[in-house]
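Researcher: Structure prediction, please.
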Amino acid sequence: MKTKPGVLDLLFPEARAAILRLLFSNTRVQRYVRELALMSGLALRTIQEELATLSAAGVISSWSNGYHRFFKANPAHPLFADLRNMIQKSSRLPHLRLPKHRRRRRRANKNKGRTIPAVRPRSFPLRLTE
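Model: Predicted structure follows.
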């Protein structure tokens, strides 16, 4: 599920913004890793790395039932209310039109299409005479 770029995409890397959107838009819902990967459209390893980063920061909490590891927003974290408000407000803002990166034109190669003659070393005789 690719979304149009918003303010979160400018503030955070794409994967982190997607995970924060999924976990903080409805803070009561717990999601497991593959569910987050399916919902965001990102690679499983990318999701795992971002979840590890957010868990280390304490922004999200996790628990396991032995089969799945569930993640949810951590309401005890000091930034919980601020992150939730930022995500809720960013969803109401208009989507951004990010500037497209200009490709640099390559200069035309002056030697394009020309063949460069092979250079013979001076010590090599041009004609062999006996």
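Model: The domain at 7-92 is CATH 1.10.10.10 (Arc Repressor Mutant, subunit A).
Researcher: Thanks, that helps.
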